[in-house]
Amino acid sequence: MSIYKDAKYMDVPFEEKQKLFDQVKGDMRWDHIFNGCYECGICVAACPSARFYDFSPRVFVQTLEREDIDTFYELMNDSVWDCSQCFSCTRCPRESNPGALITVMREVAVNNGLNSAKEALKAYSRIIYKIMSTGTQVAPDMLQPDAFPDWGPHVKEISDNLEYWRRALPPETLHTVELAWDVSVETRLELFMIWKLTGNLEMIENIDEGIFMILEEVMEELLEEHGYDLDDYENVIED
Amino acid sequence: MPTTTASSLPLKAEDRKFERNSPPPTEDYREQLFELEAKGEIEIIRVPEPYIEVETKYGRKKKIPLEHTWHHKSCGQCGHIPGYSTAIFWLNRQFGFDYHDPRDQTSCTAWNYYASATSNPAAQAAVAVRNFAQAQIDGYFPVIHCGTSYGHYKEVRAELIYSAELRKQVRAVLARLGKKLVFPEEIVHYSEWVHVMRHEIKKRQTRDFSNLTITVHPACHYHKLVVEDAIYDKDLYNGQRTAIVSGLVKTIGSKLADYSTWHDCCGFGFRHILVSRDFSRSFATMRKIEVMIEEANPDLTLTHDTGCVTTLDQSQFAAKAHGKKVGIPVMSDAQYAALAMGAHPFKVCQLHWHNMEIRTILEKMGIDYDKAWSEFEHQVDRIKSGEIDYLSWEDADA
Ligand code: SF4
Ligand code: SF4
After folding, report:
1. Is A127 a member of any domain?
2. What confidence score (pLDDT) does residue B173 get?
3. Nearest-by-Cβ selection for B107 from A46, A136, A172
4. B117 and B145: one domain?
5. Residue B190 — left, alpha, or beta (φ > 0 → left; ψ -120 to 50 → alpha)?
6. Which positions ≥6 away from A182 have C-beta within 8 Å?
7. What is the pTM of this model?
8. What is the pLDDT of residue B127?
9. Which residue of A82, B142, B200, B263 sits 20 to 30 Å from the alpha carbon of A10, by its own alpha carbon?
10. Residue B9: what pLDDT?
11. Total domains present in chain B
12. Measured from the CB, is residue A37 less than 6 Å from ligand 2?
């Protein structure tokens, strides 16, 4: 029984929920980040997300401790995306780490292609593409007025002057507009290979097939140009 | 047994005396790394000399290298607040230190990891180790500009120490790239370098900042995410709060002002700053900026991580439009230190990329805003006319 009166996922088979719970508990980080809960609420007092959302790190840890599978599944499909990943909750006197438990739950949600995870990441996929294909996550040309209307007119001033203002930076690596700094092609290729070798691309395929296809295409082209064959780089971490 | 008489009531913070009365609650990660090295499992990059030793949260000593540093840049700093990274390099150049600004560095990818979870421990560790292996090949010791990379690499270190399976996986991945499983003896954040250099910075101070009141936001991923590497000093906030940034402010001679929500995060939130910015904005202004103004009325707030500068600075625009009492300029410790040493506010510190009005603070620092801006614009005109391709370090200091 979920603790939520308006539980949304009671029709999902219990075995499916248990499977995901077991994956969270089976993660190599579990023993280091879960030590139970005193119900003291210190994590909630320190938590920024608890102030602005119906969100509680204590509920996460309590739910995991009680092995409340139905509530776990509700949290994993909803509240899990509200965490700010600030780790203010590492003040926990029981030495549990709610923020890290939430990271593991997010990973399991993504790995299993949950619809809620797909939904939560929809607006984020451009960033995933950027980091996976270029090796830097934030680019100067992301500063566009329509993307940051609440940051005021100075965003437009930057984007209008972007090319010259980038060239007016003394460090030679920073004269870039599409990348945060000038990442060498060899380095980008090595990063592509890491995604492939660690099964990271398969994770992306589960969550956003469109991004996966573009990534593979771009990667294959660049690798081929440099004499590599993407198929030589299979997942080496699978059991 | 303690009794609850009036004389034994809890002491006020300022009356408490800092004393360590128990051994560190964690095992020393250095010993664990060196044990793994002795078993041939991993190679450790030693902190090069010269270095300065400082005390961390649990009383252990940490070596901070002064030079021969490989600058692991931050994507958010380089992309959106480039005066932040420029100021770090400028400081190194002022001291004549040997440093390397690599092109063979990738972002740590932790922003994506914390925001989207579309990653796994092997990929994360491989990205970290690839960067470290490259630093070793280049012959330098990694210094991390980004607080999140710093925090995340400490997590990676714990995972690599704990899991033989993960070490095996990362070795296999790195071998395919022709690289080895290497890890630095210390994970060093650039703000730790600024901290240990603060007395040298003071010696070269050319601008008087004693009229400035400053609040400090300590970055979450610096002191909360794997807490034990962070630098503490018993003479600063009684050893109860990280000494980073605050130590610099005191050394430079500005007034360090406290405020009650110092432990709160900035509101960045990883996914929130991009897809739920109403949260970031509300938190940054209501829990940080407004409280700072109410309790300390600072001229400036300083912090030492990418997301914190961005969120605290950019969030104030909309709050101002709503008539909120906001409007504090926000900078990094590196930009503040560089300005104290005479750096140009636009050619070096690139403050035109920041959002909040900075004329007032620059004038309080003794800088002629209009003159400085026209000097910058003159350099931009030279680029536009084709006279020069880029602004050189020499022109930045001219
Ligand atoms: S990491 Fe998440 S749960 Fe922990 S304090 Fe921050 S927002 Fe709250
Ligand atoms: S701080 Fe720790 S023990 Fe206290 S409620 Fe949170 S998880 Fe439980």
Report:
1. no
2. 96
3. A136
4. yes
5. alpha
6. A172, A173, A174, A175, A176, B103
7. 0.95
8. 95
9. A82
10. 73
11. 3
12. yes
Q: B168-222, pLDDT tens digit by residue?
A: 999 999 999 999 999 999 999 999 999 999 999 999 999 999 999 999 999 999 9
Count of domains for chain A: 1
What pLDDT score does B4 carry?
A: 46
Tokens 């002002």 label which residue? B257
Beta strand ranges found along chain B (DSSP E)? 43-45, 51-55, 61-65, 69-72, 99-100, 141-144, 182-184, 188-189, 213-217, 255-256, 300-303, 330-332
- List C-alpha distances in Å: B45 to B124, B135, B187, B375: 19, 9, 11, 43
Q: Pick from B106, B120, B177: which is nearest to A183 by CB?
A: B106
Q: Is B64 exposed, middle or buried (0-12, 13-18, 19+ CB in 10 A)?
A: buried
Interface with chain B: mutation pick from A126, A194, A234, highest number of B CBs within 10 Å: A194
Quick count: other Cβ atoms within 10 Å of Cβ A228? 16
**Rounded mean pLDDT of A200-208?**
85
C-alpha–C-alpha distance, residues B393 and B63, integer Å: 30
CATH number for the domain spanning B266: value is 3.40.50.11810
Residues B103 and A181 sit within 8 Å (Cβ to Cβ)? yes
Domain interval for residue B319: 206-371
B277 and B323 part of one domain: yes
- Locate tokens 């990442």: which residue? A183
Question: Are the C-beta atoms of residues B398 and B376 closer than 8 Å to each other?
Answer: no
Torsions phi, psi for B331 (to 5 deg): -140, 170
Taking the C-alpha atoms of residue B391 and residue B85, their distance in angstroms, rounded to an integer, is 15
The CATH number that applies at residue A69 is 1.10.1060.10
Q: Rounded to whole angstroms, how far apart are CA atoms B31 and A66?
A: 36
pLDDT of residue B3: 44
A162 touching chain B per CB within 8 A: no
Strands (E) across A39-98 are located at none
**CA pair distance A48, B280, nearest whole angstrom:** 10
Q: Could you give the count of Cα atoms lying within 13 Å of B203 in the half-sphere of its Cβ?
A: 5
Residue B344: what pLDDT?
98
Using the predicted structure, report yes or no on whether residue B5 has a pLDDT greater than 70: no
pLDDT tens digits for range B339-389: 999 999 999 999 999 999 999 999 999 999 999 999 999 999 999 999 999
For ligand 2, atom 2, name the residue with the nearest CA. A92
- B31 to each of A102, B38, B44, B151, how far by Cα in Å? 30, 10, 11, 20
Torsion, Cα of B116, B117, B122, B125 (10° steps)? 60
| Average pLDDT for B58-75 | 97
Q: What is the DSSP letter of B319?
A: H
> Which chain B residues touch A197 with a CB distance below 8 Å?
126, 172-173, 176
CA atoms within 13 A on the CB side of B281: 20
Residue B13: band (very low, low, confident or very high) from pLDDT cuts 50, 70, 90: low
